[in-house]
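Input (structure):
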């Protein structure tokens, strides 16, 4: 099943419970704009390569559209469309004044030099700069991109439009970025893990966690959880998975990754297992924080964790989600679980527009407030209506976007 079809299953499930009309469903399902662009680049070896980039702007009823920019070989229009719709519901669930968008370029960033990545980023901006902007659509980092790509993005956008620090978020702190943005998604995952297990009467020290992916989201989630006394027993990345029943020394893992171009290969004092084994490990909390579609109907019956926190976007297929629901596995959905990133992106945008730096303490405090309030709202609605946390989050998100659409009127 393609990614967009999967997100529409969740959308329709919530829409059915809300008695949403067919006309409103159609309006909220079709993207506002979808762009595909050609990115020709001269590679370091002198050859010309042509890449394909996408930007999908899904909905702007609640504010400028917001969403990351992904560099990954599997990027295509369907995936970007699915991720753009998720952003619309996500910004609404955490109640920040944005709509949803997403972008991507179908490349494997690990196979390109910094010079090539800079050229790809700048050429992409050349192609889309006139349809994005601080009041229209604001990109941010996602898989395969980070602060450096955002800095190139800003610089290229400003060549056309002049000083515009708020045109993109996730920038380096030295270049109008916000302290706390880099850690925000992982930290948000950690905050929610803590809230969720507290609700269930569990203590962090007695909670074993496995995390798939040790990039931006996975590594900061691991750091926050380890500092909060959780026992992180398994971590992984593209090189494989690493297990230690007594708990992995996360500071040592972070150091190891820093010294090895971000990769965990060769991590000392751990047993090497596969990514498939990590997903099926005997743990209390499983946090997929890498790719979409990793928990499927095939491996769902073997997943032992009673709690799954979707740090990645769309890590569970709808078929697997139904199986896990029947088994009463608690799933904290992506549109809430990884919303810490877009929330602090919003704080960065606000600071850029205020020309005033909040500092890390205020950013963390406000993030904690937004994530906690959003969690409580989703939890309460799920209890009230007897629905999953995912359906409750969708009902809240769709409800807010739908009301804004109706109130604004369609003329
Ligand atoms: P990243 O590129 O920084 O890290 C990805 C990690 O996944 C790396 O450790 C990589 O080695 C690992 N990985 C890649 N392929 C793998 C595989 N086949 N098996 C196991 N591990 C694999 O990306 P990120 O920014 O951390 O994003 C991860 C997920 O979180 C994505 O789904 C993304 O959409 C989502 N997300 C990110 C943000 C953000 O602020 N960065 C915000 C919301 C959601």
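Output (sequence):
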């Amino acid at each position: 099943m393609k990614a967009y079809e999967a997100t529409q299953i969740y959308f329709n499930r919530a829409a059915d419970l809300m008695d949403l009309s067919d006309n409103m469903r159609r309006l909220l399902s079709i993207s506002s704009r979808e762009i595909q662009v050609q990115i020709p680049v001269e590679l370091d070896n002198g050859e010309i390569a042509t890449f394909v980039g996408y930007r999908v702007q899904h909905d702007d009823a609640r504010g400028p559209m917001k969403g990351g920019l992904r560099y990954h070989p599997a990027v295509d229009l369907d995936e970007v469309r699915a991720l753009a719709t998720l952003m619309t519901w996500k910004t609404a669930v955490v109640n920040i004044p944005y709509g949803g968008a997403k972008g991507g370029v179908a490349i494997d960033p690990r196979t390109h030099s910094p010079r090539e990545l800079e050229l790809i980023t700048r050429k992409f901006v050349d192609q889309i700069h006139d349809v994005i902007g601080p009041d229209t659509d604001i990109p941010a980092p996602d898989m395969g991109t980070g602060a450096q790509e955002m800095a190139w993005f800003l610089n290229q956008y400003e060549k056309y439009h002049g000083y515009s620090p708020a045109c993109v978020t996730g920038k380096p702190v030295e270049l109008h970025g916000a302290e706390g943005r880099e850690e925000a998604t992982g930290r948000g995952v950690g905050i929610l893990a803590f809230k969720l297990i507290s609700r269930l009467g569990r203590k962090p020290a007695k909670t074993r966690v496995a995390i798939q992916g040790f990039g931006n989201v996975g590594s900061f989630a691991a750091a926050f959880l380890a500092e909060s006394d959780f026992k992180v027993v398994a971590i992984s990345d593209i090189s494989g998975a690493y297990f230690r029943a007594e708990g992995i020394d996360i500071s040592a893992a972070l150091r190891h990754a820093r010294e090895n171009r971000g990769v965990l290969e060769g991590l000392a004092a751990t047993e090497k297992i596969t990514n498939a084994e990590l997903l099926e490990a005997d743990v209390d909390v499983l946090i997929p924080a890498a790719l979409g579609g990793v928990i499927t109907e095939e491996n769902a019956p073997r997943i032992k964790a009673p709690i799954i926190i979707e740090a990645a976007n769309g890590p569970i297929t709808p078929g697997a989600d139904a199986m896990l629901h029947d088994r009463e596995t608690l799933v904290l959905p992506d549109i809430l679980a990884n919303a810490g990133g877009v929330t602090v992106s919003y704080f960065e945008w606000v600071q850029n527009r205020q020309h005033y730096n909040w500092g890390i303490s205020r950013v963390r405090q406000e993030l904690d407030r937004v994530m906690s309030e959003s969690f409580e709202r989703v939890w309460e609605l799920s209890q009230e209506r007897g629905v999953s946390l995912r359906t409750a989050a969708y009902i809240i998100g769709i409800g807010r976007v739908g009301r804004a659409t109706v109130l604004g009127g369609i003329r």
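Notes: The chain has two domains: 3-8+27-163, 184-337. The chain is about 45% helix and 15% strand.
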